[in-house]
Structures are given as C-alpha cells and as structure tokens.
Target: CPNE7 protein
Amino acid sequence: PPRPAGMGDVPEPCPQAPLAVLSKVELRVSCKHLLDRDTLNKSDPCVLLLMQSQGQWMEVDRSEVIKSNLNPVFAKIFTVDYYFEEVQKLRFEVYDSHGQAGLGTHDDDFLGGMECTVGQIVVQKRVTKPLFLKYGKFAGKSTITIISEEISGNNGYVELAFRAKKLDDKDLFSKSDPFLEIYRIDDDRSEQLVYRTEVVKNNLSPIWEPFKVSLNSLCSCEEKRKLRCVVWDYDSRGKHDFIGEFFTTFEEMQKAMGENKVQWDCMNPKYKIKKRNYKNSGVVVLLDLKIHRVYSFLDYIMGGCQIHFTVAIDFTASNGDPRNSCSLHYINPYQPNEYLKALVAVGEICQDYDSDKKFSALGFGARIPPKYEVSHDFAINFNPDNDECEGIQGVVESYQSCLPKIQLYGPTNVAPIISKVARVAADEERTKEASQYFILLILTDGVVTDMADTREAIVRASYLPMSIIIVGVGNADFTDMQILDGDDGVLRSPKGEPVLRDIVQFVPFREFKNASPTALAKCVLAEVPKQVVEYYSYKAFPPRCPRPPSPEPGLGSPP
Model:
C-alpha cells in the first residue's frame, strides 16, 4: 500500500472545512523531492502561506509539520478569500522544522518558495511549480503542487464520528497508535486527502474525535464518489505502519444516521493473499453522521425563488410644489430627479430576479382623488385592485402621470406601507416554500413621523420573507432614520421586542450624488443575499429544486 500522506510530531486533525461561503477557495498543498537538510534523517517540512498586502508579504497561515518526509502531502487546508476584480499574490515557503524550536529562519532551513496568484490557481485548479531558493536558484528537483476548490453553491458540511475495534498490533512492546485517513478518489483516479484524524496512543480499539468536512471536500457533492479510508500505526520518525484499508461512498456512510451504525472490515491486501484464514485487521465503525446543509442565495434563486419589488414614494408637502424647479419632485425633461435616479438604480437590478417584471408602486403622504383624502398607501397608477406597473419604465410613467393629479400633504407615515407588503409576505410564508421574497424600497425626503408604529411594523416584518431599503432624498437631517438600520445596535419595537433579523438598510442619496447609479445599488442591495439566506435558513426551507453548485453572482450580476 502507498505510504501515508505524512504526519507531524503530535499530528493535529485537519482544520474544520469551512461552510459554504461565497468567494472562498480551499487550497491543498503537497511537495515532491524536497532538499534533505538533516544529516541523520530526512527534513521535517512545514509550509507557510503568505499574501501580499500593500507591497508587503504577510503570513496568513501555516501547515502542520510532517516528520522525516521529502514528499509530504499536508493535511492542512488553507482557506483564502477570492476577489475576481483583484490580483491577489500568494507566496508558499517550505521550511525544515526543528521540533520545539519551531521553524528555522536561516538559509539552511529554507527548502524553497514559490509565488503565484489566487486567480492562476483557481483557473488551473491544480498548479505544480518548481521551488526556488534565494536569488532565483532552483531548489534541486523540488516541486510544490497546489490544488484549489471553490467553496460554493449547494454545499453544506457533514459531521462524522469514527471508531475502530480489534486492530492489528504493529508494536513489539506496546499496542498500535492508530490514526485514520480519508481520501477522495477523483475522476482521474488520483487520490485527494480529505481528512486525517488525531493519533490515539496505545489502543487497538480507538475512538477518534468527531470532525466536520465540507461535502465539496469529502465527495465533490457526489454521493456515489468512491472514498478510500486507511488506518495507520503512527511512527514518530514518519515511517508509519499500514494496518488496513476499506473503500466506501458518502451514500453508504449515510446509513449511519440516527441510531444506526455502519462498519467495514479493515483489510490488509498482503495478509489476504498470504494468510489462508485471514478475516480482517480489525473493523472500523462509523458511529454517527450528521448532515448540515448550507444553501446560498444563488441556490434559492436557481431553485425558482422570485424577488418581488415594491417601491413606495413620499408625496408629503416638504418635497416642495412639483411645478417648482426647486421641488424634489420637479420633472426636468433633461435630468431625472433624485426620486427617479434612486428608483431606477435599485429597480433595474431587482427586475432581473423577477420573472414577470411587474412592480408594485405605492405612494404615501398625499391627498388623492376623487375625494382628496390623505392616503398613506395608495397605488400610484390609481388602480386599487392592481398596484403593479410593467417594469421600471412603467413605474416611472405612473409616477410622472400621478404628480399633477395629487396634492402633496403629510405626515410622513411609512408603517401602513410596511404592513401592507408584510400582509402579502405573510400569505407567501404560509406556502412553506422558498418561492417569493419581497423587497420594499421606500424613498422619503424626511424623518418618519410614525416612528413607534414603524419600529413595530419592522419587528413584525423581520419574521417574514422581506427586506426594507430606505433611501433618504434631499438635504434633510436623517440622523433619526439611522435608528431603523440595525447596524449600530438591535432595532426594537416600542415594547422592547428585538427584530429577528436585521432587514433594514438606510442610506442618504446625497452620499451617492456624484457616484455612478451602480454604486447606490451595490450599497443598498449588498445585504439582501445574506438576508434571503438568513430568512430561509431560520425557517429551514430548502431551495425548491436545488441545482448543482455553480459560481454565485452578487445581486448586481444576474444569473
């Protein structure tokens, strides 16, 4: 059987594989033909990962030390954030470690380095490069291989708990010191180390610590992919003794859920051939398996979840007479006003996530025909049975045609509109499906008058599939509005009940006056994917029909 991937002094288990997070990449490192710096035995290599920041190399993380091995496969998984729009320079440095003394920094201890970018590794998925010493000298025939996997999509992670019974004894004066390694067998038949357990000393029936790995890492999210599991007897000089192996799949492992256990014969192929009555070299038992699904925003969108967009426009008298060019509602034929700019910037992105492209458009704070009574939730197309407009252009046209027909009045009450959208969202929630999520864009020129009712309405809405974006138009003092955006602390209802989720984003439009429309949209929509995932995760609603994982766009780049 092949040698194990290599072990450290007191080997640590692989770090827990991260959950499915956007734009993160897992890097696995191995080396071949390292220089032998030690006189009596082989080098004890360790890898440092450095990243360039403002022209300086900063250490990000380091691997375990592998004893006496010139061809190490490190169990450590390096996780780096991946930014498509940036050149991210990485440097891998390999050193010969000296036990308790740690890593040497002398030239004698340096086994070689290699530089590349995150982008290069992500594009190629597997990069093998020579290691260089100082001044561009080759480190003999030494090479380093980096394998990358993007953590994305319908991933999640699995928690596994293994033990073994009656393992073969490989030691003369004591019992074996067993550890378990799990390898994923890839399509090209190469093996990828997924996890290495800790060593249990002097024990033929060890119970290893439970551990978590991402489904992506374990089986590339394919339940039938073959896995090879190997049990070794640990040797401090790096010459571990092979006890036995078995093959399985994640599909088979899942039989261990609940009260069930799954066990495999741990086989040594040599003994099987040599010994007539050979049964096994012990058994390995999977005591428990827990699956934690982690869905992304794109999983919900690709599963058919629609984003329904509602805009609410402030028609209170403080905006100024729309016929006057100083008014915030003045229709300039050459230049859209701030209300229109904000509406178009946010709406154009949301419309890509709504298949029927129909938007609810509401107004508040005006006297409306026919009786000219004040309304705080009227349809700006004046159709009470259907407040939807065809696309963003339809909203713009309804806005422009309604202005001459209404009288700007007051006060600035937004709780009625929040409650109105919340009622529709509550009907949606009862379907118990991730089929529709609601975004309410409120455009207002001043601080809300009904602050207590608004806080109450937001707390109620935080339990529903909806998010609220408030854009402050004009030059008013919006200090009090920041209370509604829970970034500085938890928003509470007048009775003290906290929001379940932070669902409000508030920005003054004037901060984006000189920026591109995309800057406003990016700012106010940045939190929405997280809010969608938080809501459906809280409700334990999976995507309606999960697709295979794929790279996830931000809200600004529609699928």
